[in-house]
Q: What sequence folds into this?
């Protein structure tokens, strides 16, 4: 695959048996202009490139590949114009871009735009333009970004290629591409539930980009993109990046097929929206009750799956408990326990015990909570941290301050190791440091 626009033009011209002079004449350009492009001395503008593409009679996939190789905001603008003329099923104007990866790495680090701008000694506007892919950072700034954002070797290798697009369109898309994308999504799902973290931002965004291009060609495969959005939603929810998770949740909901039964994995989309509602701003009674209401309103959709129904009841119980609505909290917790009687899922039973202990503690029954609380067997870091943070609250309520501090430190260590920003924010709120 050509790595520059000049090399791409030369290859496409030679494949069609054209000389530089012949191509220039067809495109109504000077031969010296085409020559300079192919020797990487200059680069074509969008109108010039379009003249060349029309002269060679390229396919739609070749046109998108040529635009990708321009590495320029004008290429992005052209793609968005094309997408407005023929809307993508997802409603997104473009697939994931280099700027999306840079933003994901910043949020993984837990940094603000201001912190990045300070570390690199550039303006905040520059950082925002990079993250929006309006401007491609210089080589110097790309190296610096990789360093301050602690990118993995795989991420560094990718970022330093300065490609605007995270995934080019397949030149010959087909049903086999959908099968390959399904296999990639399943592999990432397994990694996610095994607790893998390294390089997941790049893997998820690349898969999203590949699927976006595929669904652009095959709109009937929109459910595949919805699955990928749900996978991204799961990842960011588990890692406490609630705004990103909610963003993917709304994208996934837009792609749901209203003519088909509600998919069970859509529970993650609703839960992410509820979490974002409660935690985007300060925890207030109004926001907590709104979050509980979101889960309550969607409950009927998940009645066929007791694990998800129980999960929604647990979420409601925790929000009610935080809002000091003890009766509602205990009632929702009891409904969640009843739902789980229809399931033999051990992991969900462990989640239920942890949640019930948290609710009981917050409604003034920490002794009863301690009787329920046992370490989970689930190795997922987010689950381990949830248990430790609950243990902290129970022990603190019982006056066992040493045990509470030990649980908090263990939670902090896991959160640091796995970039669990939601937990780190909780700990910061608790300790003020």
A:
């Amino acid at each position: 695959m050509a790595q520059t626009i000049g090399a791409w033009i030369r290859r496409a011209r030679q494949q069609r048996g054209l000389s530089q002079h012949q191509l220039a004449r067809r495109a109504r350009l000077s031969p010296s202009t085409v020559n300079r492009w192919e020797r990487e001395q200059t680069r074509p503008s969008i109108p010039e490139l379009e003249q060349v593409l029309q002269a060679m009679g390229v396919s739609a996939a070749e046109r998108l590949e040529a635009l990708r190789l321009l590495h320029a905001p004008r290429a992005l603008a052209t793609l968005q114009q094309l997408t407005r003329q023929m809307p993508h099923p997802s409603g997104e104007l473009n697939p994931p871009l280099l700027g999306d990866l840079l933003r994901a790495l910043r949020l993984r680090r837990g940094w603000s735009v201001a912190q990045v701008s300070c570390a690199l000694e550039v303006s905040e506007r520059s950082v925002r333009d990079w993250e929006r892919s309006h401007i491609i950072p210089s080589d110097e700034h790309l190296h610096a970004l990789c360093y301050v954002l602690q990118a993995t070797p795989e991420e560094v290798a990718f970022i330093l290629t300065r490609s605007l697009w995270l995934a080019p369109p397949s030149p010959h898309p087909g049903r086999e591409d959908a099968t390959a994308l399904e296999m990639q999504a399943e592999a990432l799902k397994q990694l996610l539930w095994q607790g893998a973290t390294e390089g997941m931002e790049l893997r998820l965004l690349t898969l999203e980009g590949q699927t976006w291009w595929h669904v652009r060609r095959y709109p009937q495969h929109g459910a595949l993109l919805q699955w990928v959005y749900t996978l991204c939603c799961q990842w960011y929810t588990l890692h406490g990046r609630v705004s990103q998770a909610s963003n993917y949740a709304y994208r996934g909901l837009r792609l749901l097929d209203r003519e088909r039964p509600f998919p069970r994995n859509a529970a993650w989309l609703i839960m992410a929206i509820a979490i974002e509602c409660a935690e985007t701003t300060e925890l207030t009674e109004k926001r907590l009750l709104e979050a509980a209401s979101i889960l309550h309103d969607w409950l009927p959709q998940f009645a066929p799956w007791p694990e998800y129904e129980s999960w929604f009841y647990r979420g409601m119980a925790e929000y009610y408990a935080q809002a000091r609505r003890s009766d509602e909290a205990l009632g929702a917790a009891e409904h969640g326990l009843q739902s789980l009687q229809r399931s033999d899922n051990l992991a969900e039973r462990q989640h239920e015990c942890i949640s019930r202990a948290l609710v009981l503690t917050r409604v003034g029954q920490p002794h009863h909570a301690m009787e329920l609380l046992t370490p989970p067997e689930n190795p997922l870091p987010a689950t381990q941290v949830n248990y430790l943070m609950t243990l902290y609250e129970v022990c603190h309520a019982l006056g066992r301050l040493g045990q509470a501090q030990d649980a908090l430190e263990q939670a902090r260590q896991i959160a640091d190791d796995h970039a669990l920003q939601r937990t780190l924010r909780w700990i910061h709120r608790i300790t003020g440091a």
Remarks:
- The CA atoms of residues 166 and 206 lie 6 Å apart.
